[in-house]
Amino acid sequence: MAVDSQLIKIFTTMSEKYVTKSISTVRQPSQSNLLIAASGPKILSLGLESNAIVSEWAPVEAVTVEANGKEEDNENGERPAKKQKTSTASPKAANVIKLAVSPGKRHVVAVTDDKFIHVFEQDHGKLTELSQRAMPKRPCAIQITPDDATILVGDKFGDVYSLPLMPSEEGDVAAGAAPEATPQPETQFKPSATNLTVHSKRNRDALAAQMQQKNFTPRKEALKFEHKLLLGHVSMLTDMKYVRCEKDVQKRGYIITADRDEHIRISRGPPQAHIIEGFCLGHTEFVSKICQVGGSNLLVSGGGDPWLGIWEWWPEAKLRRRLTLPEKMKVPGHPLAVYGIWSGRVDLGSGEEDIVVVACEKVKALLILDRTSVEQDGPGICVKLSHNPIDVAFDDRSILVSTDARQSSADARDQRIQSLRVQKKTGELQAEVDVSPRYIKALNEYSVQSESIVGDKELESLLYGVADLRKRRDQEGPEAEAEGGNGVTADADD
């Protein structure tokens, strides 16, 4: 099977309880193409031609300390030591929420919901963990730069970091070992002022409050591995892309970021990320997704507005047009929220072309746009699906779509990953569902087994939540950023 050299990612349900958050194809010259998949806490690689699982990675099983029944004194009159054994009630394993493959296809980077970044070496499908690093906040976007040297990480609290793909030995966390926090000694607080030096009533009240403070607030430890803070948003970060423009003779890299406050910022890439080139302004609601169209200077954005923004992000940021979302992309009673925007190169029969696919949260349809629809005033086509689309990937002539078929019959769940055959006839786009490819059948039949249990509520939160970014009209400014939307308080540990 011919595979697009671009990174391909899919969300899909491979069991009734677990979600494969991402799938990436790895095209290897003179070798069988691979599919790297993350389902629940596990990551596996599949041979697309052999339909065989080449490698499977799972986190180290947690060990708990339990008393071995009745405590009795040993021969020395001392209490026996507690035995370590695997808990019968399996501890909750961290789910993989992001997955990326390096442009050179030699490394895989995964993000788990416990805020760890895992780096794997990929050798003929075998995955070997090289490192794991704990971020201060949960990443919401991740990308590997074209030189295969740097990981760019954006967290929802607004910061974008750069990390070396291959960490240095000093200060980094070795694979398989979690970083241990250095215990902070409790320092007794002692004000420098006294009753002899304070005279006004206001200052005496302040001194009395200080005297009641027992300890200092412990400082948060700095990250123990090499990293650089590139830029930050005051608002909640929602998406990040590292891009280059094929028209730029300097081939300079840029970081485009989006946030909850309707902003799209264009910054230079490292090491000049502090330089802001411009903003794409015009959205009136949150921006949830941004996507570069191929390697062009066109950017598509979407979020809580009923339209998509088509921007020329280079050489100067300007809005080219607003593309109104069709009625088929809206659900009565559910606030409109753009769930995903993807771009890929597909053979439409008359030649290869960059197309854009758009999904809205909990809407059983996809909007497909060709280059003409993006650049000019074209409507594209809206394809109806049987279930909510979760992620999209691109084959040479097809669009792979993963759907949320958890509540469907067994037969329907066997077709939860589908292929849309896309072609252009007489200048018009056409798409039809094709579930015959052998590799899709292998994916649909595979089931990830795990003793850990994930609840429906947790899985729902893992899959959805974009609409919660919408602010209440009476909730603006800093107060809004303390909440996750619609009165849902954001977790300070995320």
Automatic annotation (TrEMBL):
<comment type="similarity">
    <text>Belongs to the WD repeat TRM82 family.</text>
</comment>
<feature type="region of interest" description="Disordered">
    <location>
        <begin position="470"/>
        <end position="494"/>
    </location>
</feature>
<dbReference type="InterPro" id="IPR028884">
    <property type="entry name" value="Trm82"/>
</dbReference>
<comment type="function">
    <text>Required for the formation of N(7)-methylguanine at position 46 (m7G46) in tRNA. In the complex, it is required to stabilize and induce conformational changes of the catalytic subunit.</text>
</comment>
<feature type="compositionally biased region" description="Basic and acidic residues">
    <location>
        <begin position="68"/>
        <end position="81"/>
    </location>
</feature>
<dbReference type="GO" id="GO:0043527">
    <property type="term" value="C:tRNA methyltransferase complex"/>
</dbReference>
<dbReference type="GO" id="GO:0005829">
    <property type="term" value="C:cytosol"/>
</dbReference>
<dbReference type="InterPro" id="IPR036322">
    <property type="entry name" value="WD40_repeat_dom_sf"/>
</dbReference>
<dbReference type="GO" id="GO:0106004">
    <property type="term" value="P:tRNA (guanine-N7)-methylation"/>
</dbReference>
<keyword id="KW-0677">Repeat</keyword>
<feature type="region of interest" description="Disordered">
    <location>
        <begin position="65"/>
        <end position="90"/>
    </location>
</feature>
<keyword id="KW-0853">WD repeat</keyword>
<protein>
    <submittedName>
        <fullName>Uncharacterized protein</fullName>
    </submittedName>
</protein>
<feature type="compositionally biased region" description="Polar residues">
    <location>
        <begin position="184"/>
        <end position="197"/>
    </location>
</feature>
<keyword id="KW-0539">Nucleus</keyword>
<keyword id="KW-0819">tRNA processing</keyword>
<dbReference type="GO" id="GO:0005634">
    <property type="term" value="C:nucleus"/>
</dbReference>
<comment type="pathway">
    <text>tRNA modification; N(7)-methylguanine-tRNA biosynthesis.</text>
</comment>
<feature type="region of interest" description="Disordered">
    <location>
        <begin position="172"/>
        <end position="197"/>
    </location>
</feature>
<dbReference type="InterPro" id="IPR015943">
    <property type="entry name" value="WD40/YVTN_repeat-like_dom_sf"/>
</dbReference>
